[in-house]
Amino acid sequence: MTTEVTQQPARTNSSLWILIASFLIPIILAYAYFYYGGRPSVKSNGELIIPVVDIHTLAITGKSGTELTEEELTPHWRMLYFAGANCDSSCQNSLYNMRQLNIGIGKYQDRVNHGIVHLAEPDSEFSQLIEKEHKTAGRIYTNADNITAISKLEKDPDHLQSIYLVDPLGNIMMHFPKDIDPKLIHKDMKKLLKVSRLR
Asked: Which of 16, 78, 136, 154 is most buried (most C-beta within 10 Å)?
C-alpha cells in the first residue's frame, strides 16, 4: 500500500513584515511629507534644513557646564531660540511667539516645549525679562564657536534671529525666520505633529 504524503505549503513571515511595516511606514511618510513634499500643492512655511543638524554636535550643556541627559536635551519636539547676552526687540518678539505657540498648539501641547540656548551669560535686563515672562522656557547653554552649522543658515551669521524646530531624535530640521507670521509657524507645527508618530 502506498502512503500519500501531503506537501505542506511553505510558511512565510508575511504577517511579521506587515506588522513591522504598519509601524514604520507612518514615520517614513511623515518625514517624506515635509522633506520631499507629500503632495505637490503642500509645502512648509518654515525653511527645511537639509541635511538636518544633529543637536548633539552643538556641545550644549546645563548652566554649570555639565553634560545634559538625553531627556534634558531632547525631551519632546522643541522650539529653540539662540540668544546672546542681551535680548533686543526681535529677540523679545521671538521668545513671546514661542511661548504663545506652545500654549496655542492645543491637544499637542504635551508633545512640544520651547527653550533658550544661551550663547553668553544674559545681562541683568535679559535675566529680568526671563524671570518675569519666560519662566516656562527651558534654558540650555553653548557658545558661538560651537554653532557654525546653525549660523550659516542665517542671513546674518553673527546675529541669529530664527526660531529652530528640533524633533525628539535631536534633529534640528526646520527654522522660521524672524519676520514670519506666527500663524504660519502654528500651521506647520500642527501639520507635522498630526502626521508624525514621534513623541
From this structure: 78
Instruction: Give the rounded percent of residues in the chain with a pLDDT score beyond 70.
Output: 77
Q: Which long-range contacts (CB under 8 A, 24 or more apart) does 56-65 make?
A: 56/170, 57/149, 58/117, 58/142, 58/146, 58/147, 58/149, 58/150, 59/142, 59/143, 59/146, 60/117, 60/140, 60/141, 60/142, 60/146, 61/140, 61/141, 61/142, 62/140, 62/141, 63/139, 63/141, 65/141
Domains of the chain from N-terminus onward: 42-194 (3.40.30.10)
- pTM comes to 0.78
Q: Which three cell numbers stand for residue 137?
A: 522656557
